[in-house]
Design brief:
The protein is mainly alpha-helical. The protein has a single domain, classed as Winged helix-like DNA-binding domain superfamily/Winged helix DNA-binding domain (Arc Repressor Mutant, subunit A, Orthogonal Bundle), CATH 1.10.10.10. It has five helices and two strands; from the N terminus they run H-H-H-H-E-E-H. It has a two-stranded antiparallel ribbon. A hairpin with a 2-residue loop joins strand 1 and strand 2. The protein is globular, with a radius of gyration of 18 Å. The N and C termini lie far apart (about 45 Å).
């Protein structure tokens, strides 16, 4: 009887997959006021290797800048967030 209890699935909560754009928007939102890499990593719920890939991508495209180990969202990044939120709003109506 105890083995029946062990085999029951445990429901923790809904698991939502994030696509690449959701992750990028989360990183850019977190870095609006300037944040260290570790803070962004935990806030965006990414591994260190994933964060490194995203930060490199964002830096190459001018969406984020690093100064003295603080990452800050650029004006182009802020425009991305604004446009992303507008499009997300339209799809969620």
């Amino acid at each position: 009887m105890d083995s029946d209890r062990l085999s029951e699935p445990r429901i923790v909560g809904p698991i939502q997959r994030r696509d690449r754009h959701d992750i990028i928007a989360e990183i850019l939102r977190t870095a609006k006021s300037g944040q260290k890499k570790t803070y962004i990593m935990y806030s965006a719920r990414l591994s260190h290797s994933q964060l490194k890939l995203y930060l490199d991508l964002l830096d190459r495209n001018g969406l984020i800048a690093c100064d003295n180990s603080l990452y800050m969202t650029t004006r182009k990044g802020l425009n991305f967030i604004r446009d992303f939120d507008s499009i997300s709003f339209l799809f969620n109506q």
